[in-house]
Amino acid sequence: SQQGEEDPQALSIQEGENATMNCSYKTSINNLQWYRQNSGRGLVHLILIRSNEREKHSGRLRVTLDTSKKSSSLLITASRAADTASYFCATDSGGYQKVTFGTGTKLQVIP
Amino acid sequence: KAGVTQTPRYLIKTRGQQVTLSCSPISGHRSVSWYQQTPGQGLQFLFEYFSETQRNKGNFPGRFSGRQFSNSRSEMNVSTLELGDSALYLCASSLGHSLGTEAFFGQGTRLTVV
Fold first, then answer.
1. Residue from the list B4, B101, B104 with its beta carbon closest to the beta carbon of A97
2. Are A48 and B97 within 8 A, CB to CB?
3. Half-sphere exposure of A39 (CA within 13 A, CB side)
4. Half-sphere CA count of B5, side-chain side, radius 13 A
5. Which of A50, B28, B37, B86 has the fewest CB atoms below 10 angstroms from its CB?
6. Any bridge partners for residue B28, and if so which?
7. Among residues A83, A107, A40, which one has the least CA distance to residue B107?
8. What is the pLDDT confidence band of residue B1, given thresholds at 50, 70 and 90?
C-alpha cells in the first residue's frame, strides 16, 4: 500500500516557471526523500529531509516538511525542459531500511 | 564509482515460467531493496536484504523470493509467472541499517509476461 500521496497527479508548466508538488503521508516518519524518475527508468535521489528539519535546499530544489500536517512539498524553481519527469516522495518510518513511495507527480515542462 | 547494476534490462517470459533478476549494489553497500513498479499500483516494496539476511518483506505472494550473497549482490526470483507480474523491477542499494540513509537505484529490469 502507498504511504504517501502526491498532489497534483500531473502538472504542466512553461520553462522558467516554478513547479510545486505536495506529498501527504499517513504515519510518523524518520525522514522523507524525494526522487525523480525519467520515463520508466531508475529513480534518482534528489533530497532527504529528516523529521526534525523544516526546510532544505539543493540547487534549484527546495523541500519543506510539516510533521504536524504530515506533509511535504518540493519546489523546483526556474524549471527547465530537462526537469520533465515523475517525482516521488518516499517515507522512512524507522526500523529497517524500508522506504515507502507515494503515487508520484508527473511534471511536464514545456520549452 | 560504479552505480547499481541490474541485469537483464529487458525480459520477456511466458506465463507459468520462472525468472531470476540480478542486482549488483554499489561497492561497500550492504543493504539491497527490491521494488515492483506498475502503472496501476505504483512502486511497491518487495523485500530488503542486509548482510545476506532478509530483514523486511512486502505484501507479495510466496512466488516472489530473493536472496543476497556474501558480496552483497542480490537476486530475486519469481516462480509460476502471471500476466500481472509484468512490471519494472527496481533494486536500490544503501550503506546499511542507519536511519536516513540515501538509497541509490538501478535502471531496473522490465519484465513482460505473455
1. B101
2. no
3. 4
4. 8
5. B28
6. none
7. A40
8. low
With an 8 Å Cβ cutoff, are B103 and A45 in contact? yes
Per-residue confidence band for B99, with pLDDT thresholds at 50, 70 and 90: very low
- From CA A69, how far away is CA A62, in angstroms rounded? 18
For A14-43, what is the mean pLDDT? Answer: 91
* A45 with B94: Cβ contact below 8 A: no
Which residues on chain A are in Cβ contact (under 8 Å) with B97?
96-97
pLDDT tens digit string along B78-91?
A: 999 999 999 999 99
| Cβ separation B100–A48 shorter than 8 A | yes
A99 CB neighbours in chain B (<8 A) are: 33, 45, 92, 103
3-state secondary structure B1-22: CCCCEEECCEEEECCCCCEEEE
Q: Mind telling me how many Å the CA of B80 is from chain A's nearest CA?
A: 23
Quick check: B60 contacting A, CB < 8 Å? Answer: no
Sort B17 into a burial class: Cβ within 10 Å, 0-12 / 13-18 / 19+: exposed
pLDDT in tens, A54-99: 999 999 999 999 999 999 999 999 999 999 999 999 988 765 546 7
